[in-house]
Amino acid sequence: PFSIASSSEKPELLEFTIKELGKFTASIKQLKPGQKVYVDGAYGSFSCDRYPQARALVLLAGGIGITPMMSMMRSLADRGDKRPLVLFYANRDRESITLYDEFDSLKKRLKLKVVHVLEKTPKEWNGETGFITAEILQRHLDQSLRALEPQFFICGPKPMMDAVEKHLAEIGYRFPQVHSERFAL
């Protein structure tokens, strides 16, 4: 299974962000534009569209878990959405950040704040280090955003998601404000 990364506002364009983990995912990049493929789905309901009343959104991604977040951000940008949006994006190192170059263009189209959290940082790094913690969340979720009672969306490796859900609970956010997309076969 793959998460859709494209905007829901462009149904003629179906994009995926795929991490190479085996023969199939390694060979999929050999597909050519216009080549016929068969897709079954989409399945699941992990989308900010299910919460149109949300006055602010917070996305928390780890690694390739950025894929459904990218779909949401692209959709919101294509709609001209003006709600405050914060993305926390955890990765091993700078080279592991997927779709890094697109964040600047999304910032121009959305009221978006991006918080990168790197486990291994380059010398010139001035962003957050380690893992997403309650302290990092509190540092970047200012009082005005908290007053909007944001909806939270989490996707990434299981240990990261478990930790982030725990940290959100520590600072006062729980279901029904917290939504997770867990990959399981």
Would you mind describing this structure in some detail?
- The protein is an alpha/beta fold and 185 residues long.
- 28% of the residues lie in helices and 18% in strands.
- It contains 6 helices and 6 strands; from the N terminus they run H-E-H-E-H-E-E-H-H-E-H-E.
- A 6-stranded parallel β-sheet has the order 4-3-2-1-5-6, with helices on both faces.
- Strand 1, helix 2 and strand 2 form a beta-alpha-beta unit.
Number of helices: 6
Terminus-to-terminus distance: 8 Å
Share of β-strand residues: 15-25%
> Structural class of the helices, strands and pairings?
alpha/beta
Numbering strands along the chain, what is their spatial order in the largest sheet?
Answer: 4-3-2-1-5-6
Number of β-strand runs: 6
Radius of gyration: 16 Å
Order of helices and strands: HEHEHEEHHEHE
Approximate helicity band: 25-40%
Indicate the overall shape.
Answer: globular
Report mean pLDDT, rounded to a whole number: 92
Largest sheet: 6 strands, parallel
Indicate the low-confidence ranges by residue numbers. Answer: none
Helix-strand layout with pairing:
Layout (H helix, E strand, L loop, with lengths): L22 H5 L29 E6 L3 H14 L4 E8 L10 H8 L1 E8 L9 E2 L4 H7 L2 H5 L3 E5 L2 H13 L7 E4 L4
Parallel strand pairs: 1-2, 1-5, 2-3, 3-4, 5-6
Please supply descriptive tags for the structure shown above.
six-stranded parallel sheet; 18% strand; 28% helix; 6 strands; 185 residues; 6 helices; alpha/beta
